[in-house]
C-alpha cells in the first residue's frame, strides 16, 4: 500500500514537473543557443542592445566580469573575462561577431530568426554557423570547466564585436588598436572559421588581402589609318598580355592541384577603357592617346607585397613604356615590424601545437590548415603580430554561411562545446612562452 502511494506521488510529481517544463522553456545549452539565434542582429539594422544584454546575463551567471565599450555610438562591443591565477601572463582571446548578414525569409524552410529545431536536430537560423554558434559555445565551455572546478592560469577573454559583416571598421578595427585591447595583453586568439563537409575540422591561419590596380598607358594619338609604334593601346595591350600570362601560371597551379584557390595570387580584369566607339554610322578613326585597365587582385598572406609591386613597376606598368599605375591596398600584407601577416602553423608557434593537441584530445582531427578565401576580423589582430587561428568546430556540416536555410545540428553544436572545453583548458594552462609569438 505504502509503495503504491509512493508511486502515485511520484507519478503526480512527474506530471506536474512535465507540465511546468512545457510552459516555460527549459534552460539547456541548446535552448540558450536558440535564444541567442532568435535575436535579430542582421544588417542593415542589427539590434546590438538585445544580444549584449543576453550575453551579459549569461556571463554574470558564470561569474565572469563584463565590460561594454562603444567606439562608435550604437555599436557596442562586449568583453568578458575569466581571471587566471597568473594574470601577468599573456592572455587568450576568443572572439566572435554579434552581427549577421540579412536573410530572405521567403526562401527559407523555417523563419530565419525562429531557430526552429527539426526532429533530426537541425537548428535553422541566420547566424547558426556564422557565427552565433561559437559565441554561445565559448560560454558553455567555460560553464562546464567551472563546474568541474577548473581554474585557468592565464586570463581568458571572450569578445563580441559589432559590424564584422560590413568590414569591422566600427568594430574590431577600432578595438584592435585601442588601449583597451592593449590592456588585455593578448598572446593568442581564436576567431571564427568555417564548417567542414567531411569529418576533419578546418582551421585557418591567414586570409587573402584585396588590392585594386589601375594601369594607364599614354601615347601619341594618330589617324586610324596610320601605322606607328608605341601607341597607347599597343603599350597597354603588352601589359594586358603579360598580366594574362601571370594569371594563367597562377591558375594552372590550382588546376594541377598544386595549390589551393586561396593560396595563389588571383588577378582579374574588371575594366578596360580606351578610345571612342563609333555610333550611328559616325566612324571614329582616331587612335586614342590614353588606354586604361583595372584589375581586382587577391594576395595570399605569403605573397611579398614588395616583390609584387616591383613586378607592376617594372613589367606591367613601366614608365619606359609611358605607363603609370595606382594601387588601392584594401588591406595590409605586412605588420609594423615588416612581417607577413599570417600565423605560424609549425613548432615555432607553441600555441599551434597546444591547439592541435587539444582538438585531438576530443577525438577530433584537423584538416590541412588553410588560408581563408574571404576576410574576417582576424586580420586586424594578426596585423598586431598576435597569432590568430580561425576555427569553428563544425564537421559533417554543409557550408551555409550567408546562404538560405543556414542550420547547425544540435549534436554538432554540443560536440563543439566539448572541443572548446579542451582548447580553453589547454591554452589557458600553458605556462611557457611569456613573450608574444607569431
Ligand atoms: C532591441 O531589442 C530590445 C530587446 O528585444 C528592444 O527592447 C529594443 O527596442 C530593440 N532596439 C531597437 C532599436 O530595435
Ligand atoms: C613615350 O613617350 C615619348 C614622348 O611622347 C615617345 O617619344 C616615346 O616613343 C614613347 N615610348 C614608348 C615606349 O611608348
Ligand atoms: Zn562570420
Automatic annotation (TrEMBL):
<dbReference type="InterPro" id="IPR002933">
    <property type="entry name" value="Peptidase_M20"/>
</dbReference>
<feature type="active site" description="Proton acceptor">
    <location>
        <position position="164"/>
    </location>
</feature>
<feature type="binding site">
    <location>
        <position position="130"/>
    </location>
    <ligand>
        <name>Zn(2+) 2</name>
    </ligand>
</feature>
<feature type="binding site">
    <location>
        <position position="97"/>
    </location>
    <ligand>
        <name>Zn(2+) 1</name>
    </ligand>
</feature>
<dbReference type="GO" id="GO:0006520">
    <property type="term" value="P:amino acid metabolic process"/>
</dbReference>
<feature type="binding site">
    <location>
        <position position="192"/>
    </location>
    <ligand>
        <name>Zn(2+) 1</name>
    </ligand>
</feature>
<dbReference type="InterPro" id="IPR052083">
    <property type="entry name" value="Aminoacylase-1_M20A"/>
</dbReference>
<dbReference type="InterPro" id="IPR010159">
    <property type="entry name" value="N-acyl_aa_amidohydrolase"/>
</dbReference>
<feature type="binding site">
    <location>
        <position position="402"/>
    </location>
    <ligand>
        <name>Zn(2+) 2</name>
    </ligand>
</feature>
<dbReference type="Pfam" id="PF01546">
    <property type="entry name" value="Peptidase_M20"/>
</dbReference>
<protein>
    <submittedName>
        <fullName>Uncharacterized protein</fullName>
    </submittedName>
</protein>
<keyword id="KW-0479">Metal-binding</keyword>
<feature type="signal peptide">
    <location>
        <begin position="1"/>
        <end position="24"/>
    </location>
</feature>
<feature type="active site">
    <location>
        <position position="99"/>
    </location>
</feature>
<feature type="binding site">
    <location>
        <position position="165"/>
    </location>
    <ligand>
        <name>Zn(2+) 2</name>
    </ligand>
</feature>
<dbReference type="GO" id="GO:0004046">
    <property type="term" value="F:aminoacylase activity"/>
</dbReference>
<keyword id="KW-0732">Signal</keyword>
<dbReference type="GO" id="GO:0046872">
    <property type="term" value="F:metal ion binding"/>
</dbReference>
<dbReference type="GO" id="GO:0005737">
    <property type="term" value="C:cytoplasm"/>
</dbReference>
<feature type="binding site">
    <location>
        <position position="130"/>
    </location>
    <ligand>
        <name>Zn(2+) 1</name>
    </ligand>
</feature>
<keyword id="KW-0862">Zinc</keyword>
Amino acid at each position: 500500500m505504502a509503495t503504491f502511494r509512493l508511486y502515485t506521488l511520484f507519478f503526480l510529481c512527474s506530471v506536474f514537473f512535465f507540465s511546468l517544463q512545457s510552459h516555460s522553456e527549459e534552460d539547456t545549452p541548446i535552448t540558450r543557443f536558440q535564444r541567442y539565434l532568435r535575436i535579430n542582429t542582421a544588417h542593415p539594422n542589427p539590434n546590438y542592445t538585445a544580444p549584449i544584454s543576453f550575453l551579459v546575463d549569461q556571463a554574470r551567471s558564470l561569474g565572469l566580469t563584463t565590460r561594454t565599450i562603444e567606439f562608435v555610438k550604437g555599436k557596442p562591443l562586449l568583453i568578458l573575462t575569466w581571471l587566471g591565477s597568473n594574470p601577468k601572463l599573456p592572455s587568450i582571446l576568443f572572439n566572435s561577431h554579434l552581427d549577421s548578414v540579412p536573410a530572405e525569409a521567403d526562401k527559407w524552410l523555417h523563419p530565419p530568426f525562429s531557430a526552429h529545431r527539426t526532429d533530426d536536430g537541425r537548428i535553422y537560423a541566420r547566424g547558426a554557423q556564422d557565427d552565433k554558434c561559437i559565441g554561445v559555445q565559448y560560454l558553455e565551455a567555460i560553464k562546464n570547466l567551472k563546474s568541474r572546478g577548473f581554474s585557468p592560469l592565464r586570463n581568458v577573454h571572450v569578445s563580441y564585436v559589432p559590424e564584422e559583416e560590413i568590414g569591422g571598421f566600427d568594430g574590431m578595427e577600432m578595438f584592435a588598436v585601442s588601449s583597451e585591447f592593449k590592456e588585455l595583453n593578448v598572446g593568442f586568439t581564436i576567431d571564427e572559421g568555417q564548417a567542414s563537409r567531411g569529418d576533419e575540422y578546418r582551421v585557418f591561419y591567414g586570409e587573402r588581402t584585396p588590392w585594386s590596380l589601375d594601369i594607364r598607358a599614354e601615347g601619341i594619338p594618330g589617324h586610324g589609318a596610320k601605322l606607328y609604334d608605341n601607341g597607347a593601346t599597343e603599350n597597354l595591350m603588352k601589359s594586358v598580355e603579360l598580366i594574362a600570362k601571370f594569371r594563367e601560371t597562377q591558375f594552372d597551379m590550382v588546376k594541377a592541384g598544386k595549390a589551393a584557390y586561396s593560396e595563389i595570387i588571383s588577378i582579374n580584369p574588371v575594366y578596360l577603357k580606351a578610345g571612342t566607339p563609333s555610333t550611328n554610322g559616325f566612324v571614329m578613326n582616331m587612335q586614342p592617346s590614353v588606354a586604361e585597365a583595372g584589375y581586382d587582385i587577391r594576395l595570399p598572406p605569403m605573397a611579398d607585397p614588395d616583390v609584387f609591386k616591383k613586378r607592376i613597376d617594372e613589367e606591367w606598368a613601366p614608365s619606359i613604356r609611358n605607363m603609370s599605375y595606382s594601387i588601392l591596398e584594401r588591406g595590409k600584407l605586412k605588420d609594423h615590424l615588416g612581417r607577413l601577416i599570417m600565423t605560424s602553423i609549425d613548432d615555432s608557434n607553441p600555441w599551434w601545437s597546444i591547439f592541435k593537441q587539444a582538438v585531438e584530445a576530443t577525438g577530433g582531427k584537423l584538416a590541412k590548415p588553410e588560408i581563408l578565401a574571404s576576410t574576417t576580423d582576424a586580420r586586424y589582430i594578426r596585423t598586431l603580430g598576435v597569432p590568430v587561428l580561425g576555427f569553428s568546430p563544425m564537421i559533417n556540416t554543409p557550408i551555409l554561411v550567408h546562404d538560405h536555410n543556414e542550420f547547425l545540428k544540435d549534436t554538432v553544436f554540443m560536440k563543439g562545446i566539448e572541443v572548446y572545453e579542451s582548447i580553453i583548458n589547454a591554452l589557458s594552462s600553458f605556462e611557457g612562452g611569456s613573450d608574444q609569438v607569431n
